[in-house]
Amino acid sequence: MHASCYNSVSIGVEMVGDYARESFDSGDGAKVRDNAVAALAILHKALKIDPRTLHFHKECLKDHHDCPGKNVVKADVIARVQAWPAAVAAPVAAPHPFIPDIPAPGAAPVVKPDLTPAAPPAAKPAPKPPAAKAAKKPAAAKGAKP
Asked: Which of 82, 93, 98, 94 is CA-nearest to residue 42?
């Protein structure tokens, strides 16, 4: 269970950190922010959900939580989700090591080697025997009747 008010209508995404005290704009907080924005953008796009419908746990008053904390501004998160991946400033040099098929934003596409066995070379067709030359009919003598 995540946010009891929204469990039946949403997906909960957890962010590690205490953003009531920690910065969400620098250091590890910014790394968590960027990862959360990427995850949210991918989920919203894949599931065709409008990012403006995003709910924070603290909006569920009956749970009495301050998640994700006062340093996480909802309007900023929504704007970043809407702008992703165009807003990604520095592309990651390589794709995530555990998901090699999905390149990082801005990285070159992953080219996997073709590991299918090569087909055997096509057999050359057998050479055709030389065509038999038609025998020439002897020329009829002049004046001869056929």
From this structure: 82
CA 58 to chain CA centroid, nearest Å:
32
Distance of CA 26 to the CA centre of its chain: 27
pTM, rounded to two decimals:
0.56
Rounded Cα gap, residues 117 and 56, in angstroms: 51
Provide the pLDDT for residue 123. 72
Which structure tokens are listed for 124?
Answer: 């050359």
Please check the confidence at residue 101 and state whether its pLDDT lies above 60.
Answer: no
Does the CA dihedral 4-45-107-98 come out positive or negative?
positive
Q: Which residue has the higher pLDDT, 20 or 136?
A: 20
Per-domain boundaries in the chain: 27-83
d(CA 137, CA 81): 91
Distance CA 71, CA 64 (A): 17
